[in-house]
Amino acid sequence: MSAAQIVGGVGVAVGLALSSVVVDRLSGSTVISGFAGTATVLGAALLALPTAKASGSGGRRAGLSLAYGAALTGCAISVLAITLGSWPLLLAGLVLVGGGSAGSLAARYAATDLSPRDRSARHLSLVVWAATIGSVAGPNLAKPADQIGMRLGMVQTAGPFAFAALAFALALAVVLFLLRPDPLTLARSQNGSQPAGPGRNRTIRTAWQVLRTTPTARRALVMIAVSHTAMVSVMSMTPVKLHHDGSNLDVIGLVISLHIAGMYVLSPVVGWLADKAGKVPVLLLGTVLLLASAALAGTAGHRVWQVTAALVLLGLGWSCGLVAGSALVTESVAFDRRPAVQGLSDLLMNVCGATGTVVAGAIVGVLGYPTLGLVVGVMVGAAGLWLALTRARSTPAA
């Protein structure tokens, strides 16, 4: 699982670093460039339930294979789109590339299938951390991959997506041949549970039924969605901002690499803290970090160092939201219903993220990057206040 996260992280990170810049170049529109991040996040959302359904019926291997296979196909389409100079086709390819993110998100839950309750966050965070190497290295490999691609006869910026296709192919091979025994199948045999029955609607209906009766899971799901929306919105438009400010691919790659390091490097610490201090306090810590990031990004101007600091804090805040929130969702739901709720969680967080990138592109294109920082700050602050108030009201009853 860790090996799949490493190589899959390379593919995801290369796409994150360049997709908005390539769409901006092909379309000539900053607003349309925001749809690059939207397409990828939307793809992750669209593939969340099929991945969860495949996992529920066939185990984690089946779900992850579906996700990484879709990402591989999307990279091939993206290379074709760049060759033809078609930004609509590129956006279509990026939707399938979102399967890489869907796979990475689903992989974190595989770590909790066999973990004890008091270590769920730590085990989950270790799988999240495994993506660090590939995710940090990915953006910095964009320029060498581009140069190699052009030497092989590819058009400019097609090489990185071809390199991402190779990374996803390796991740798919790891899942198919090395993920044995399947953790979900083994956990089911230990708990006496049966695979979920067929039907997409049943997956959705089961998840909603659980959320209606489980306030803790609802709170965790909302905070995951808010953290992800804030992260994707700011991150997706930062390469465009830096590009317009005159930064080259090396600078953009470094900034995104440091951002991704913030997302993943300290995730084991976040997991340990969530198990020791509690999931909700770590979720609240995440909102504070995201607020600080929004403030720095909104006031950065042309200072690359301040944008970089904002992106690092953005990654740390996201890590708190994802690790603590995902562990809280898992431990608050019965074992036989976890795949359905986990799939719905990934669906909603990515739908919110996709919506956020659309709005972010429009905000930056019309009102500017500083306004995006303000809007994200208001959203995160409201969510953090809601979490604190609902937690306080539920404490006496508990």
TrEMBL record:
One of its GO terms (molecular function) is transmembrane transporter activity. Pfam families: MFS_1. Residues 1-395 form the Major facilitator superfamily (MFS) profile domain. GO terms for cellular component: plasma membrane. It is a multi-pass membrane protein. SUPFAM superfamilies: MFS general substrate transporter. It is found in: Cell membrane. It comes from the Bacteria. The chain crosses the membrane at residues 29-50, 62-84, 90-111, 123-141, 161-179, 220-239, 251-273, 280-301, 307-335, 347-366, 372-389. Keywords: Membrane, Transmembrane, Transmembrane helix. The keyword Transmembrane helix applies. The keyword DNA damage does not apply. This is MFS transporter. It comes from Nonomuraea terrae.
